[in-house]
Amino acid sequence: MVDVNLSEDEQVEALKNWWKENGKSVVAGIVIGLGGVFGWQYWNQHQQQVAEQASQQFERLTESVAAGSATAVTQAEAVIAQYEQSPYAVFAALNLAKVKFQQGDVEGAKEQLQWVMAKADDQSLQQIARLRLARLLLDQGDADQASSLIAQAPSDNFKGDIAELRGDIALKKGDRAAARQAYKEALEYQVSNSALVQMKFDDLAAAE
């Protein structure tokens, strides 16, 4: 660096010498720094464009699902394939599971729900997929597998819905006492559809 005690001419000469020794590295540092700034800006712009494209495709998908359009399956598959690492792929898979179930493709619906459980970063989305899959298994008469699936569920904001499902499974197996206890817990945990669970609980109480 330049010595502040040098004369003006000496400082100029010292600066020339310093620049000869360090100029290339300074320029390289500036270039790298600018490259990093512009590279980061480009990356952010690219990511924003991808997110906008994914959002538009997902919006069209939800419209197709709501309208019962035959294109919903291909649209959902496209979103999953193109944006697999994004939340849009997870939501697309949940929609695809719904469509496949409505079309009678139960195994296809299961596959999509299992995919969400494996791929979703958000625990809430994993829980939604788990509950839907367990409900589907129960509807098929496989109460044991449904019970095994929800037994693996972590305790979180969905514990009310999980308790309700435990009640439905217990009722399917003929264990009315266990079902009533599970419905009671579901109400205590503020299950999402409290009116329906209260009706289930009251029906069991009246029967006893």
Helix/strand/pairing class, anyone?
mainly alpha
CATH class of the domain at 141-208: Mainly Alpha
Q: Please tell me the CATH architecture of the domain at 141-208 by its name.
A: Alpha Horseshoe
Question: How many β-strand runs?
Answer: 0
Mean pLDDT comes to 82
Cα-to-Cα separation, first versus last residue: 92 Å
Poorly predicted spans = 1-6
Elements, N to C (H/E): HHHHHHHHH
Question: Helix proportion of residues, in percent?
Answer: over 70%
Helices and strands, with pairings:
Blueprint: H1 8-67, H2 72-82, H3 87-102, H4 106-119, H5 123-139, H6 143-151, H7 159-172, H8 176-188, H9 194-207
Helix pairs in contact: 1-2, 1-3, 2-3, 3-4, 4-5, 5-6, 5-7, 6-7, 7-8, 8-9
Care to describe what's here?
The protein has 208 residues and is mainly α. The protein has a domain at 141-208: Serine Threonine Protein Phosphatase 5, Tetratricopeptide repeat, CATH 1.25.40. 81% of the residues lie in helices and 0% in strands. It contains nine helices and no strands. α1 (8-67) runs parallel beside α3 and α5 (123-139) packs parallel to α7 (159-172). The protein is elongated and about 100 Å long. Residues 1-6 have low confidence and may be disordered.
Summarize this, please?
The model is unreliable at 1-6 (pLDDT under 50). This protein has helices spanning 8-67, 72-82, 87-102, 106-119, 123-139, 143-151, 159-172, 176-188, 194-207.
Attribute tags:
disordered N terminus, chaperone, elongated, Ancillary SecYEG translocon subunit, Serine Threonine Protein Phosphatase 5, Tetratricopeptide repeat, 208 residues, 9 helices, 81% helix, mainly alpha
